[in-house]
Amino acid sequence: MSAIDTHWDVIVVGSGLGGLSAAARMSKAGLRVLVLEQHVFAGGYAHHFLRKVKGTDIVYDFDVALHQTGNLIPGRSMHKILTGLGVLERIGLNRFDIAYRTRGPAHDLQIPADAGDYEKLLCETYPEHAGGIRDLFASMRSIDQSDSGSPSPEAMNIMGMTLQEFVDSHVRDERITAIFATLWGYLGLVPSKVSAFMYAIMWSSFHFGGCFYVKGGGQALSDAFVSVIEANRGKVLLNTEVTQIVTEAGRVTAVATARRGTFRAPVVVSNAAAPLTFHGLLDDPSLGREDCERVDGLPLACSISQAYVGIRGDASELGLRDRGGFYNPTYDLDAEWNTVERGDYRSGGWLMGNHNIADPGHAPAGRSILHVATIANGALWVDLDETTYREKKRELEEYLIDRLAEAIPDVRDRIDVCETGTPRTMKRYSWNPSGSIYGYAYTPSSHSIFRPSPRTSVPGLYLAGAWTFPGAGFGGTMVSGYNTAGLVFEDMEGRPHAEE
């Protein structure tokens, strides 16, 4: 174990994309930054895991997130951020004309990534509602426009609305609502509950900002951030669990770790869950009393259950031709949400796809990587006894493979490896309460500006990632870390750096 400097300008707790983005920006600005990560890979949800086929040298490399990211066309926010940090030049991108497939009781559509083409498709499919559809898309363009980088006036007008209220103000048809709201799973709440503002921001990132997948997946993106940090005198230290954020005289001074001792810095950016930061890591929880009203008062987001499956054969030729397909058995999305809350995944919708389309050439030769997932109520999973948990997980895995069998009937005969994750898995690796995958729920009163402030009341302690402004997802967490770094710069003016 090589010796690591014990004094730094900034320490970042956790290497999710929020922490990595903050660390990259601060490193590029000349600060000496240490990132501490308890896992053996950097990236949080933006990382991969390997599974070897028994008795062979064949290895599947699974991307944990498996989804797309947006706002990467020139001029859009994420393109600007990643270019400025020197990350974009270190990654490759696959861009798609089709954003996703959406299927319901009375529709089955391939949704174009381009908003104009999407609007045209809906108008042609539902000509009786063409006027309302055009008004809806016109509103989305107005919401997306902002010369200053701040929310447009139209975006501010929907700040307190649900997505259902927003869509209903333009067109009332359960099919159109379900289609337009197909991506609700990316925010973890159905239209009647999810923030219209946050849905519009997320939807626009794909349909105005481009629909992309990073070549090599989330791990390639995380590794690019790591390379930027370490090229600028920073360090990302893996397999290093932080056990305590240390304070002296009421301000942050250091962090203690389980295996590598204590590292000192006047600034700590926590990419850990906000509840864990204040109730599990901060050595004197009373210091964060002012922050905890929000930290403890906001509802948690959902969790997820998903299966990562490696099969023999070309999935596209075998019947699964969608990079990502969303399937809803009903247009009563409130009823579907009730199935999520009571844990009845067999009655709800699901997402599945052929990862070979997202990242051609990434799977082992002659094989395919598939994924299938369903939104879950984490509270129903995390506290089960071991016997009950294993049985419930086995039943879940069988159900998820059944969904894949709808596209590839003999999929079970082709499986090389199958790894199923539950909300308990999400909690184990992220340490997020109830295995929440989005931090706090995206309701009209708990999104973005309503989350705990990235500049906490504890001097020297900051937050980055899904639990603070602006929120979760690849785009949200990277913007979060970038913004948090800006706050650190403001507060560190005139403060001397650590001795080298």
Explained architecture:
This protein has 500 residues and is α/β, with parallel strands linked by helices. It contains 18 helices and 19 strands. The strands form five sheets. The protein has a seven-stranded mixed β-sheet, with helices on both faces. Strands 9-2-1-13-19 form a five-stranded parallel β-sheet, covered by helices on one side. Strand 6 and strand 7 form a beta hairpin. The longest helix is centred in the last third of the chain and has 20 residues. The two termini are 21 Å apart.
What would you call the structural class?
alpha/beta
Give the termini separation: 21 Å
The order of strands across the largest sheet is: 7-6-15-16-17-14-18
Number of strands: 19
Low-confidence parts lasting 5 or more residues at pLDDT below 50?
none
Radius of gyration: 22 Å
Beta fraction: 15-25%
Subunit arrangement of the protein: single chain
What can be said about this structure in brief?
With about 500 residues, the protein is α/β, with parallel strands linked by helices. It contains 18 helices and 19 strands. The longest helix has 20 residues, at about 385-405.
Any descriptors?
7-stranded mixed β-sheet, 5-stranded parallel β-sheet, alpha/beta, 500 residues, 20% strand, 19 strands, 18 helices
Outline the secondary-structure elements.
Layout: E1 10-13, H1 17-28, E2 33-36, E3 48-52, E4 59-63, H2 77-85, E5 93-95, E6 98-104, E7 107-112, H3 115-125, H4 130-144, H5 153-157, H6 163-168, H7 174-180, H8 196-207, E8 212-214, H9 217-231, E9 235-237, E10 242-248, E11 251-257, E12 262-264, E13 267-270, H10 274-281, H11 289-297, E14 303-312, H12 315-318, E15 325-327, H13 333-342, E16 350-354, H14 355-358, E17 367-376, H15 386-405, H16 411-414, E18 415-421, H17 423-430, E19 461-463, H18 473-492
Parallel strand pairs: 1-2, 1-13, 2-9, 6-15, 13-19
Antiparallel strand pairs: 3-4, 5-8, 6-7, 10-11, 11-12, 14-17, 14-18, 15-16, 16-17
